[in-house]
Amino acid sequence: MLHILHCSDLHFGPPYLPRVGEAVQRLAAELQLDSIVVSGDFTQRATQEQFIQAKEFLDRLPDVPKIVVPGNHDVPLYRVVERLNDPLRNYREIIEDRLDYTVELEGATIVALNSTAPKSSISNGRIFPEQLDFCKQAFIDLPEKTLKIVVAHHHFAPAPDYERDSTMPKAKRAIDIFVDLKVDMIMGGHLHRAYIGNTLDLYAGRNRDRGIIIVQSGTTTSYRGRGREKEKNSLNLLRVDSRMIQITHYIYFHEHDRFEPVSRHSFPRPGMRFYEQT
Fold first, then answer.
1. For residue 181, what are the contacts with CB-CB under 8 A and spacing of at least 6?
2. Helix, strand, coil: what percent of the chain each, to 5?
3. Domains of the chain by range and CATH?
4. Would you say 41 and 79 are in contact if contact means Cβ atoms under 8 Å apart?
5. Whole-prediction pTM value?
6. Distances (CA, A) of 87 to 10, 79, 98, 236
7. What is the predicted pLDDT for the residue at 8?
8. Is the distance from CB of 129 to CB of 173 less than 8 angstroms?
9. Which residues are CB-neighbours of 97 under 8 A, at least 6 positions away?
10. pLDDT tier at 278, thresholds 50, 70, 90
């Protein structure tokens, strides 16, 4: 059994909610985690002080492998010279020096991708062909039962709601390649509301027999929630075994001062039938 906590969009700086952050720490300590994913936007304005606060938050989480990626807010928006010349300097010095990398867990391979594009698409992000080649190399020749996960900040498919967000440029190209590589799951943030579903909900693709599970987290610790999670905070817990993937979506409740589960989503692993017992 593999347990992964998924947080996103911490937004250290003015939007950060310290009380909610403490609730994340308490919940993480209660769970027996194998890994923690934080899918970008550690800060609001990419300042050194905000990154230091985010790093202190990460260091107080359980001592398990952490998979992190930068978000568009981790790039300086108004410090133009820095954005053009060294946009992720503070992120790389304080949070994680690697931008595209692979993490091996027991029974799973996770590829972290930097979807920020400071010079071409600040808000919507972008995945470039060389990053897709990196995924091909990471996922090639893996044992058949290895869980394959891609983590990026920006969304490859929008949440199917009234917000009607645009997707990353060339997102469909990436999805088609991920399907060919038999990627099981894409994890991300950016939307400030959760969406747990399948790429086939939004894009049929060139292989309509196999979609990819989408796991989007809302903003975990800021007041910038959107859509159905306006003024709410959320995170996800993944439980994976050889037969099923279960994703539990948590919302923070102010009256209880804690995150509590509000929905569970179960997906059979490839080769398992929906009617088989788990």
1. 135, 136, 139, 148
2. 25, 25, 50
3. 2-268 (3.60.21.10)
4. no
5. 0.94
6. 19, 9, 14, 29
7. 98
8. no
9. none
10. very low
What interhelical angle do 171-180 and 129-139 show, nearest 10? 10
Overall average pLDDT of the 189-209 stretch:
89
Q: Edge to edge, what strands does the sheet with 234-240 contain?
A: 66-69, 35-39, 2-7, 234-240, 244-253, 258-268
Strands 195-198 and 185-188: unpaired
* Six token digits for residue 218: 């809302």
Per the DSSP assignment, residues forming a β-bridge with 38 are 7, 68
pLDDT tens column, 96-118: 999 999 999 999 999 999 999 98
Q: Name the residue with tokens 């950060």.
A: 16
Token pair 């952050």 is at which residue?
21
